[in-house]
Amino acid sequence: MRRTLLLAALLGGVGTLAILATACSSGSDEPAATSAAATAEVHDEDADGELADAAVGQSLKVEMQDFAFAPAAMTVKAGDVIEIAFTNEGTVTHDFTIERADMDWMMSGETDMVAGHTGDDHEAGMAMHVPLEGGHDAMTRMRVHEPGEYVFYCTVAGHRELGMEGKLTVQ
């Protein structure tokens, strides 16, 4: 009896794992790209829509490269709505991450994001997190409420150590 229950529990666990693996698999080794529309709830930190309707105070372009940001230093005004056009010019996945900032941000427009790189504990404690596969673009809007210096970096393993770090100065 004990052996039958153990076998049934084992087979049930294997079946559950097989179902989960099939449901989570994209069929390739590459991360799947999804549109911002499909992931808007995950990335939209502007629940009341204020940023979407606000006038843009400054526009920036940020390139993610293998393994640097260009520019590596930016200056913005506290309280302004900043629109940032991100381009991953690299060949591998990169992200733009800011921790611990009093800010609002949102994705805007059609954006190709990296599936499986957002919406889990990976983003816990991050004020802003924008992951992109190589060759893809994203458009965001943000508003930082408090002046100060904020470090941004790539969270992909080893990328920060290779130089993917910069500074956002908020005046």
What's the arrangement of secondary structure elements?
Layout (H helix, E strand, L loop, with lengths): L1 H23 L8 E3 H8 L6 H4 L4 E8 L2 E3 L2 E4 L5 E7 L5 E6 L3 E6 L3 E3 L11 E7 L4 E8 L3 E6 L11 E6 L1
Parallel strand pairs: 2-5, 4-12
Antiparallel strand pairs: 1-8, 2-3, 5-10, 6-9, 6-11, 7-10, 11-12
Can you characterise this structure?
The longest helix has 23 residues, at 2-24. β2 and β3 (68-70) form a beta hairpin. The strands form three sheets. Strands 3-2-5-10-7 form a five-stranded mixed β-sheet. It is globular and about 35 Å long. It has 171 residues and is an alpha+beta fold. It is built from three helices and twelve strands, in the order αβααβββββββββββ. It has one domain (33-170): Cupredoxins -  blue copper proteins (Immunoglobulin-like).
Task: Write a brief caption for the model.
The chain has 171 residues and is α+β, with helices and mostly antiparallel strands. Helix content is 20%, strand content 39%. The longest helix is centred in the first third of the chain and has 23 residues, at 2-24.
